[in-house]
Design a protein that fits this description.
Layout (H helix, E strand, L loop, with lengths): L1 H5 L4 H16 L2 H8 L3 H15 L4 E4 L2 E4 L1 H27 L5 E5 L1 H8 L3 H7 L5 E5 L6 H7 L1 E8 L9 E11 L2 H6 L14 E4 L10 H9 L6 H4 L3 E3 L2 H9 L4 E5 H10 L8 E13 L6 H26 L2 E2 L1
Parallel strand pairs: 3-4, 3-5, 7-8, 7-9, 10-11
Antiparallel strand pairs: 1-2, 5-10, 6-9, 6-10
Helix pairs in contact: 2-3, 2-4, 2-5, 3-4, 5-8, 6-13
Family: Belongs to the LysR transcriptional regulatory family.
GO molecular function: DNA binding; DNA-binding transcription factor activity
Keywords: DNA-binding, Transcription, Transcription regulation
Length: 326
């Protein structure tokens, strides 16, 4: 027995731990045996050897099934996390090891109006890699990213707890935007107090669980512009930010826009900020990387570099156009 005890985490002890983990998780030797494709007796014997090796009873056999002892609970907390992380990493390496594009996940509006516009820079510096941009709203975590071969993901989160593993890429500001032709056609809109509900374009992306009118309501309140709640819902509403931006480009009204999604149009002169007040958005863009994908560091470093460049251009735009905090 002393010889066995001195052999920590040998191939035999790892097999015992795997059987214990399955039996503890499923509360059944039979179901554990089915999962591991061995006999029920083999699982029972492996767990018994583990108990003898450790000198502790780990599982109690009861008429209603297996029950963990306090020592068993302590060990199971470790094996459960360890085998789960090992499985996630192995699956991620297997997926990432296949030849093909590097997956980057992003909300559709951010992918279309910010991320894809910067791909030329990526390919100039990383000509050996191919990116696959996945526009989606699904909540991401490292286990999901490993299983689907996603190297990095960007999300717009209103709180850090939404994606605990994520770190901030950059903050966001809200500004009203309209096409020059729309403002020329509405000379009566000299300041924000002249706004009517029908002038407003609203959007709320599905993942954020907010009302389409929320960002306009926030801007009006923080800019000190009195506005009837009932009038907020009179303008057109969209379920994607990019749709509200497109409507503004088409001269359909004034959209409340996140600067990251419209900066290119502002610099081109296709959109303008008629009421030059900006307010801080309640969320920020955050990034999360897969710990198992071989290209994660490359993608994250590139995204951070692009974010720094964007912030510099954005702040310069604010200064040159006189767009000041409300």
């Amino acid at each position: 027995m002393d010889a066995i005890r001195s052999s920590c985490l040998s191939p035999s002890s790892l097999a015992w731990l795997r059987c214990f983990d399955a039996a503890a998780r499923l509360r059944s030797f039979t179901r554990a045996a089915q999962e591991l494709h061995v006999s029920q007796g083999a699982v029972s014997q492996q767990v018994k050897k583990l108990e003898e090796w450790l000198g502790h009873t780990l599982l109690l056999r009861t008429p209603s099934g297996l029950r963990l002892t306090p020592r068993g609970e302590e060990l199971f907390a470790v094996t459960c996390a360890t085998f789960r992380d090992l499985d996630t990493t192995v699956r991620g390496l297997h997926t990432a090891g296949r030849r093909g594009p590097v997956n980057v996940s992003s909300p559709p509006s951010f992918a279309m109006l910010w991320l894809t516009l910067r791909l030329g820079d990526f390919y100039r510096t990383h000509p050996h890699l191919t990116l696959r941009i996945v526009g989606e709203f699904v909540r991401v975590d490292r286990e999901l990213m490993a299983s689907e071969g996603i190297a990095a993901a960007v999300r717009f989160d209103t709180c850090e707890a939404a994606v605990p593993e994520a770190v901030e890429l950059f903050d966001e500001w809200l500004v009203p935007v309209a096409a020059p032709a729309f403002m020329q056609a509405h000379p009566n809109l000299r300041n924000a107090r002249d706004l009517e509900g029908k002038n407003l374009l609203h959007a709320a992306d599905p993942s954020e669980m907010s009302a389409p009118t929320e960002e306009w309501a926030q801007w009006l309140a923080e800019a000190g512009v009195p506005f009837r709640d009932s009038a907020l819902s009179e303008g057109a509403q969209f379920n994607l930010s990019q749709l509200a931006v497109q409507a503004a480009l088409g001269g359909q009204g004034i959209a409340m826009a996140r600067v990251a999604l419209v900066q290119g149009y502002l610099l081109q002169g296709r959109l303008l900020v008629p009421f030059r007040r900006r307010i801080r958005a309640r969320g920020s863009y955050r990034i999360i990387g897969s710990p198992s994908h071989p290209q994660t560091r490359t993608i994250l470093d590139w995204l951070v570099d692009q974010a720094h460049r964007f912030e510099h251009q954005r702040d310069a735009l604010f200064d040159s156009a006189g767009i000041v905090p409300a």
